[in-house]
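Researcher: Here's a chain I'd like modeled. Treat it as a single chain, no partners, no ligands.
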Amino acid sequence: MNTEIRQLLEDVREGKISIDDALLTIKKAPFEDIGYAKVDLHRKTRQGATEVIFGSGKTPEQIIGIVDVLKKNGQGTILVTRMSGEKAEEVKKTHPMKYDERAQIGVIGEIPAPTGIGKIVVATGGTSDIPVAEEAAMTAETLGNEVVRLYDVGVAGLHRMLAHMEEIMSATVIVAIAGMEGALASVIGGLADCPVIAVPTSIGYGASFHGVSALLSMLNSCASGVSVVNIDNGFGAGYLASMINHTGKREQTEDVH
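Model: Modeled as a single isolated chain. Structure tokens:
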């Protein structure tokens, strides 16, 4: 069960909130139509995380408008992905924001303290994969996770990754990000005892086909426990890693009650 709904029900049981007030919270409009967007206001109630704004293709004014609605409805931390530096500067004039140019991610509000059951490791094959890795890492951090970054530990120098076996073996979930032939995910998947989320990147020479080669390699991995997201989809990997890292916490909460 979603932790926010559970907390609401717990508050009713303990007398911290009336039944009528709880009912009003649930009855609030599920979305707000602002013309160019229908902002999902029940996303956090349903899934535990608020709607994330995809900045590509949106004007700064549209991003600001969506942020206005989310903040008006009580959302304290808002994530904006794939947003250019120029758009970020315009948004900052209205909403203070932490912006990372490599990840093209903006975070409005405070990044919450980690609430996941363990650590998420984000590993890259090379330095060129870091922009996608930072998108994954910042997404996971914004969703309440402790993230360990292992960058440039690809198979061209396997000893670099083997020097970090403690971090790899203690992770709850690992995001393995690589271009070229995408071999990193299979190697990590053969070592780790946790789920591995593979992210192919569009880094590589001509026959890499802008990430298709790495994508196919990861899909054909012989290592068990490896799942694959789309090319350059750091956000999707970070979000999925967060869900995995919070699953045990939800189960523990349900067992207690």
